[in-house]
Amino acid sequence: MTRESGALTLSEDDRRVLAPWAADCAERTLPLFEAHVAGDARPRDAVDGARAFARGELRIGPARTLAAQAHAAAREADDPAATAVAHMAGHVLGAPAYAARALALAHPDDPIAAAGLVDWVAEHATAAVRAVLRKLPRRTDAPGPLGAVMLELQARLTADPFDGRPPTSHEQMTGRPWDASYHDGPAPWDIGEAQPAIVRLASDGAFTGPVLDAGCGTGENALHVAARGVPVLGVDVSETAVAIARQKARDRRIEAEFTVADAFRLERLGRRFDTVLDCGLFHTCDATERPRYVASLASVTEPGGTLYVLCFSDEGPGTGPHPVRADELRAAFHPGTGWAVVTLTPDRVRTRFHDHRGAPAWLAAIERTSP
Ligand SMILES: C[S@@+](CC[C@H](N)C(=O)[O-])C[C@H]1O[C@@H](n2cnc3c(N)ncnc32)[C@H](O)[C@@H]1O
Predict the structure, then answer these.
(1) Model confidence at 156, in pLDDT bands (50, 70, 90)?
(2) Ligand 1: which of 165, 178, 223, 308 to mutate, judged by most atoms within 8 Å of the beta carbon?
(3) Residue 26 belongs to what domain range?
(4) Which of 70, 62, 69 is nearest to 95 (CA)?
(5) Does any domain span residue 1?
(6) What is the DSSP letter of 343?
(7) Which residue's CA is the nearest one to ligand 1's atom 2?
(8) Among the three residues 139, 159, 179, which one is the final residue of a domain in this structure?
(9) pTM (2 d.p.)
(10) Out of 55, 157, 263, 293, which could bridge 214 as a Cys pair, Cβ 3.0 to 4.6 Å?
(11) Among 211, 186, 201, 193, which residue's Cα sits nearest to residue 310?
(12) What is the model's pLDDT at position 33?
């Protein structure tokens, strides 16, 4: 929580994203300090303070005071590993490097200990954490015993904004991962409640479980369906969106499952659904992605099950950014794909950038025909 080089480019919100990750990392090596300096709670208090700051329960000033006290504990400890641990507890950006340093000092004959920590830190950095780290000025040279670890972490954590999957056509077009849409306030499509067309479908009893919401965003549609007592899984490539959806489910005490998954690889879920919802994902797929996506949807839908697609249409004024023609939709789900378009009707989709009537849309009910 102390100011570090590069940290001035980070907003308070950015620091809230990093704080729990740094706190988890610090906690892994706290026992090294506590074994050496029994009864000194300052590093642990700084870790708890970082988490409270992330939850919005502690302001940045008091969190920084706790971090400074951890640094004081570091200066007073007479064991190098304990010093590194206490130092780390006071840092957000340097925490992983100090943690690796502490392990290297505590286990001088075991290089795997520190390397394992670096692996753990990299694996536990969420997409949101990686996105914040990418905002920092890039270091090419970092002197001192922490430097090599800092450079390795920077290389591993900031290299791939798509976390190992191929970027979608939309991500290639915008140059940003989907996750970035959720970093600075609500995304343009995130209206903070379920789409009226989905509410109507739900009250007509269209959603029989289990239900999959593909590209669920922050979960409003999935939560609306789940609140009616239907089992729902929402999936999205955006970790931030999934985290927000989970938090909403907790806050509203609605039982619904949300997980990060690629809708173009749904077979990896190893699950089947009676009803599938696509609200706003199909229209972001380009012509090359559609066959893969349609097959992916088929792989998880029970024969006789129904897929509902709500997407922008090309008809009428005020069309959305990815208008789809009716014949394109029918062609994507042609009979050879194991789907049959049952109904395809004009509807509306609301966004944050259209007036209350929203944009022209298609609402399609598509049946899964063959196994
Ligand atoms: C236009 S938004 C709609 C979100 C949500 N259904 C709603 O109505 O608010 C499209 C969503 O699909 C997600 N998405 C895009 N490509 C995806 C993929 N291949 N797998 C899973 N989710 C994807 C995006 O992250 C985004 O949340």
Answers:
(1) confident
(2) 178
(3) 7-159
(4) 70
(5) no
(6) E
(7) 280
(8) 159
(9) 0.67
(10) 263
(11) 201
(12) 84
